[in-house]
Amino acid sequence: MFRKQQTNVGIIGLGIIGTRVAANLRAAGFAVSVWNRTPKPEPNFLGSPAEVAEAAKIIQLFVADPKAVHDVLDALGDALTPDHIIVCSATIGPEATLEVAKRVQEKGAKFLDAPFTGSKVASEKGQLVYYIGGDPAVFETVKPVLEASSKAIVRIGEIGQAATIKVVTNVLSAITIEALAEMLSVVKAAGIAPEALTAAIEHHGIRSGITDMKLPVMISGNYDTHFSLKNMLKDVDFGLQLGEKLKLDLPATAAAADSMREGVEKGWGELDFASVVKRYT
User: Is the pTM of the predicted complex or chain greater than 0.90?
Assistant: First the structure.
């Protein structure tokens, strides 16, 4: 059993998700080494990504964007060897994922495209869902590590394809929340209690996990960050880039991006992405 072997795992990026994944791994019996650009009071916090690579052969990344991933690879330098597996759980889009995979593989190391869905509560409970792209043999090696922080793992296909699915599903969430914000504003402007919308949606086909989670947030005005507006905007912009590359017109995606960009410009970027409803308040 992996618990008895005490597999060494490195976590780079200690935001909302990375911190909780590290805790899940410790609870599952893994030896976990961590690093973050801003030092944090976490167990076994090391001085650099290179030190993490010296301590662990499987390294999972939870950093913010493509530049941050490339910065980590720069910092790993010659500490990244053919013995390592880089598990990229950062949402950086398919193009950057392929670029990063190439850099890792040029070092002789292995790479797994492993973005996830699930925010703060899911990560606390070890209930993330990973989308996987890459070599099945590499996935089998990493699988016990991913199982420690997830309720499901979905095999997608090749490197870059899991990153595409992650972008697509996040864009769907963004569009849903933008539509919900607009219609909640209509309900309020019409003089109807917002709780009536909640009751109506409960018995409607549009009801989903995301509406159950975010409509109460919009009504209460408590935008405690589970997934930030700035990060959702980043992912919606990836969706627009995909549309441009594939020569597809994506008007709903563009509208959601415009609304979220406006919110970020107004200073709401660190709030939960449900804060798009603030433009109507």
Answer: yes
